[in-house]
Design goal:
The protein is α/β, with parallel strands linked by helices. The protein has one domain: Alpha/Beta hydrolase fold, catalytic domain (Rossmann fold). Helices cover about 40% and strands about 15% of the residues. The radius of gyration is 20 Å and the shape is globular.
Length: about 400
Amino acid sequence: MSSWVSHGAEMALRSVALPFVLGCRWLAEQGDQGGAPPDGTGSGWMRRLKTAADELFFASEFLVGESSAFFDVGRLRAETQEAVAFFRARGWLDDPVTYHETPPPLREVAVDDLAARGGPYQHLRFESGYSPAEGEPGRERWLASAPNLTAHAWLLRHPGPPRPWIVCAAAYRMGDPSVDFLGFRARWLHHSLGVNVAIPVVPFHGPRRVGRRGGDGFMTGDFVDTVHAVAQTVWDVRRLIDWLRHEGAPAIGVYGLSLGGCTSALVASLEATLDCVVVGIPAVDFAGLMRWNLRGPLVQATERLGFPWEDVATLLRVVSPLAVAPRVAKPRRFLFGAAGDTLAPPGQTRALWRHWDEPRLLLYDGGHVSFLFEAAVRDLLVEALATTGFLPSRSDAA
C-alpha cells in the first residue's frame, strides 16, 4: 500500500512540475549545452507540428519515467568519482578503445520461428557473456540483473543464397518486435530492398526489461550503469556481427537511430570490416544531451545540489563516439539529423559529422520523432546501401 501511495505522490509532484519544466525548455536561451540549438532555417507550422511530437515524448518521460538517481546525489557523486579514478588508472580515459574488449566468437545460438502483424520473423537468443572488469565500480550490481545476461535479436532473413545483412541498432524505449520493425522500416528493407535485417535488443529493453517499462534503468542518472549498458550493447552487436559473418553474410552494415546512433558509431570505431554504417539522429554526448534537455534553472538546481557534471562527462568518455576514431572508410559512412530536433539537437549530429571528417550528411527539416515519415531519410538509406554494394542499383531499389 505504501508503495502505491509514494508512487501516487511522485506522479502528483511530477504533474505539478511539468508545466514549469516545459516552460524552461521552451524559454531557455538558445545555444545551451548539448550542441547547437534547432536550426532556424525552414521553420514554420509544419516543423512546429513535427517538433511537438518531440515535446510530447519528453513530457511522457517526465511524467511516467523511472525515478531518477538525481535524488541520491551523494551516492551518485561518490560512485562516479570512484569510477573515474578506476578508469584513469587503467588508461581507459586516454584511450577509450581499450575499454571495449573484443568479444569471443559467437557460435551457440537459439532461433525460434515466430509471426507478428506484417509477417514471420525469427527470435535469436544467445548468452551475452559481457561483464564489467574485475573491481570496476557497479560490476556486481550490473551482473545481478539476470535478464541482461541473455542477448536477443529479431531477424528477417531471406531463404536461399546468403544476402547482405543490415544490423539495426535500436533507440531508447524500443525492444518490442512490432515497434522495432516499424521504427527501422524493417519490412521495407527486407522486402523492397532485398536485404536481411537483424535488430538486437538493447539491455533493459524488451525481453531484457527489469523495470516497469522497457528502457527503465538505462538513463536515470546512474551513469556507471549507463556506461555498462552502452558497453554491453556494443559488445552484443559485435557478437551478432561475428555470428552473421560465420553464417556466410557477404556484406554487413550497421544502421542506428538515436541511442542506437551512438551504438552504431562506436561499432564503426571498433569493427574495420563493416561495409556500411548509417547513423541517424544520434545521441553522442550523453552529459551534454542531459543538460540540453534540462536547461536553464533545472541545470542550475542540479549544480547547487552538487551533481558532478564534470566527472560524469569524464566517465562517459569511454562510450563516446567523439573520443574514438572511425575505422570504417569515409565513403561508407552516412549521417542524418533533424534540423528541428528538440531531444537530440542537430549539434550532436554535426559534432559527429565533423569528428568523422565530414562524410555524407542529411539534415532534414523536422524533429527527432518525425524521421519515420521523412522521405529524405528513406532516400538516404537507399543511397547508402546502393553506393556501398548492398543493392544492384538505385533504380532497382527505389
